[in-house]
C-alpha cells in the first residue's frame, strides 16, 4: 500500500496470494454476524447486491428452472445466469457446498 491506496496486483501470483489471505481471514470467522459484518465492510452495496443475485441465480438454476425464467425472476442478465450455471456445474464446488447445506 502506498499512502492508503491499494496497489493493483502486478501478477496472477499476487492475485492468488491476496485471495488466499482473504480466504484464511474468512475461515477465522465464527458466526453469521461476523461474516455479515466482514462482507459489509469489504464490499460495496453494488458488490453485495451482485453476490446476492448470483446466489439467487444458483439456487434457481439448481432447482432446474429455465435460464430465461431465472433471468426474469432475479433480474440477472442471461449472460450472468449462464456464467453462474457454468460455475455451478464445472467450478470449484463452492456453489455446491453452499447448496448442500440445505434451504436458504
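^ C-alpha cells above, recovered residues below v
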Amino acid at each position: 500500500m502506498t499512502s492508503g491506496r491499494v496497489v493493483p496486483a502486478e501478477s496472477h501470483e499476487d492475485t492468488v496470494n491476496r485471495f488466499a489471505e482473504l480466504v484464511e481471514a474468512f475461515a477465522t470467522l465464527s458466526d453469521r454476524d461476523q461474516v455479515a459484518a466482514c462482507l459489509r465492510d469489504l464490499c460495496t452495496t453494488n458488490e453485495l447486491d451482485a453476490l446476492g443475485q448470483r446466489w439467487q441465480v444458483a439456487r434457481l438454476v439448481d432447482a432446474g428452472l429455465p435460464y430465461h425464467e431465472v433471468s426474469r425472476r432475479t433480474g440477472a442478465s442471461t449472460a450472468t445466469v449462464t456464467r453462474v450455471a457454468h460455475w455451478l456445474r464445472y467450478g470449484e464446488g463452492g456453489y455446491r457446498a453452499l447448496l448442500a447445506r440445505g434451504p436458504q
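The domain at 45-104 is CATH 1.10.1270.10 (Trp Operon Repressor; Chain A).
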